[in-house]
Amino acid sequence: MNTNEQFRSGFVAIIGRPNVGKSTLMNHLIGQKIAITSKKPQTTRNRIQTVYTCEKGQIIFLDTPGIHKAKTRLGEYMVDVASRTLKDVDVILWLVEPSSHIGPGDRHIARQLEDVGLPVILVINKIDTVSREEILLFIDAYRKLYEFDEIIPVSALRGQNTEDIIDTLFQYLPYGPQYYDEDVVTDQPMRQIVAEVIREKALHALDDEIPHGIAVSVDVMKKRKKSPVTDIEATIVCEKESHKGIIIGKQGAMLKKIGSNARYEIERLVEGKVNLKLWVKVKKDWRDSDFLIKNFGYDRKEV
Fold it and tell me: What CA–CA distance (Å, rounded) separates 55 from 47?
C-alpha cells in the first residue's frame, strides 16, 4: 500500500444521459474493458466500480446507468442507482455529446446537480465527429447551463485528450489512502462480469426491441480440477415467446453466434479455455417485477 503523503485518492461518478459513451470512456481510462458497451441505450444497468492507480494516486470510477425518464421498475432502479451514486463521491464527471442544443435530459441532470455541492467536470465526448470551431460553440452553450469547474473535450473511442481527464481529476481529489492494491481494476465479481459480457454480445446481435427485455443469469461457473477449462452455464431471460425464437434463431444459429462471441471474450478474462452453455427462458414482464429484477442482480439495497 502507498504511504506517500502527497497521494490523492477518491471516488468519481461518471454520469450522463444514456448512450453518451460513459462505459467506453471508463474502459479507456483504466486501460481494460470492464463495462459493456453498445450503441443501444440502457446498456449499463448497475453501478460498475473500476480502479485507476498510478504514482500520483488512486481514482475509483463509478460508471452509472444513464439518467433518463423511467418507464419500468427496472428503469426506476437504474435512475435510482445513478442518483444515489452522486451522494457517495468526491467529484462528478458529466459526459455529454457535442451539441449546441441542450435538451430536457441534460437540463434535468443540471437541476439534480444544483444541490450536490461537489466539483463537476464536464466532458464533451465524441469530438472526433465535429470540427474544432463547433467544439468552441458547444463549450459556450454548456457554460450557460451550469457553472462547471472544468470543461474537457475528448473522444473516448479514439483516446483523444483522455489523459487530461486523469490529470484534472487529481487536482480535485483529496489527499488520502490507497483503497485498493495496484493490480485491482474492479470490484465486480467475475460471475457478474461474465453475465454482462453475454448480455453485450446479445445486444450486438439482436434487433433494437429485444435487448431492453433481456437479462442474463450465470447459473454455473466452475473451473475443472487439474484442467484449464472453466464450465459456465448461463440463461438469457426474455419477456416474450416470440423473442425467445429470435434469440435462439433458425436451427439455433443466433444463440450459437452469441455464445461463440461471448466465449472468446470470457476466455481472455479468465485466461483459460471456457465451455459455455446457454439457455433461453421467458419471464413475462420481468422488468416490472421487483422480485425478478432483484433476482437478476438489480437490487436497490445493494446500491
Answer: 26
Please state, in angstroms and as integers, the Cα–Cα distance from residue 37 to each residue in 43, 139, 156, 259, 298, following that order. Answer: 7, 26, 12, 17, 18
The number of folded domains in the chain is 2
Range of the domain at 255: 190-302
CATH number at residue 16: 3.40.50.300
DSSP conformation class of 103: -
Nearest alpha-carbon partner for 73 in 92, 102, 45, 33 = 45
Burial 65-82 (b: 16+ CB within 10 A, else e): bbbbeeebbbbbbbbebb
pTM of the model: 0.61
In the structure, what pLDDT confidence band is assigned to residue 189 with cuts at 50, 70 and 90?
A: confident
Question: What share of the chain has pLDDT > 90, as a percent?
Answer: 27
Cell of 297: 442482480
DSSP-derived letter for residue 133 is H
Provide mean pLDDT across the span 243-253. 90
> Distance between CA 297 and CA 90 in Å, rounded?
26
Last-in-domain residue among 172, 204, 225: 172
